[in-house]
Design goal:
It contains 2 helices and 9 strands. It has 151 residues and is of the alpha+beta class. About 8% of the residues have low confidence.
């Protein structure tokens, strides 16, 4: 039989874990006011060799940051015209889609090579890939994305 004190300890530990998860979700894992460096994402986008012939010479690479739950609307977007792979990228508060928002908390990062250069849902001919460790916490580097899916 488990003692009352053991159950209380287990309960408190569970509460601490839940609070840590909530703090990471809303971006408090690095402190209440993160320095600008902690509100950035950086990495490299590569193109899978089997899609190289479908990429063409022109197009726009969009590196898209969105919340893992809720609206699928982008939080931030980096637009790179006529990319030459591999493409390094950095996304910060300067790339936010909504004025006054902040880049923090848990996010998903995807990369889309768009043939016509227009933002929006993927269209036939577009190529896409996502960070294999999505969702991730803002503030990370080494976010390597391989474009490996064709629409």
């Amino acid at each position: 039989m488990v003692s009352h004190e053991t159950m209380r300890t287990i309960s408190m530990a569970g509460g601490i874990i839940v609070l840590a998860g909530i703090a990471a979700w809303i971006g408090l894992a690095h402190g209440c006011e993160a320095p600008l460096g902690d509100r950035m994402l950086a990495g490299t986008v590569t193109l899978a060799p089997e899609l190289a012939d479908r990429a063409g010479k022109k197009g726009v690479l969009f590196v898209i940051v969105r919340r893992p739950q809720g609206s699928r609307r982008p939080v931030a977007v980096k637009r790179i015209t006529n990319p030459q792979f591999p493409v390094p990228f950095t996304i910060s508060d300067q790339d936010l889609m909504i004025q006054g928002a902040q880049l923090k908390g848990m996010v998903e990062v995807i990369a889309r090579l768009d043939r016509d250069g227009s933002a929006g849902p993927p269209q036939p001919g577009d190529l896409e890939g996502e960070y294999e460790r999505n969702p991730t916490l803002v503030g990370g580097g080494n976010i390597d994305i391989q474009i490996n899916k064709a629409y």
